[in-house]
Amino acid sequence: xxxxxxxxxDTMNAVLVKMEDIKxxxxxxxxxxxxxxxxxxxxxxxxxxxxLEKVMVRASDTLTIIKQASEAFEMKRNRLENEA
Length: 84
Known about the structure:
Layout: H1 3-40, H2 46-83
Helix pairs in contact: 1-2
């Protein structure tokens, strides 16, 4: 493996670590929204419930996109590593 190929793999690995951080942050956001929704159950705030549902849907969609992008990028990294 050339130095250039190793540098590229190292960069790709660093990107994958950051993508994992992003996934974890998104999961944390979803969990926190869930906690707030449970807390709101007792006080019945329909307006906030409605807005939180929008955020939850978007956060879940974003998590799915991040997971798919990360998996595709990891496969690309693995192909590069196997070719080297």
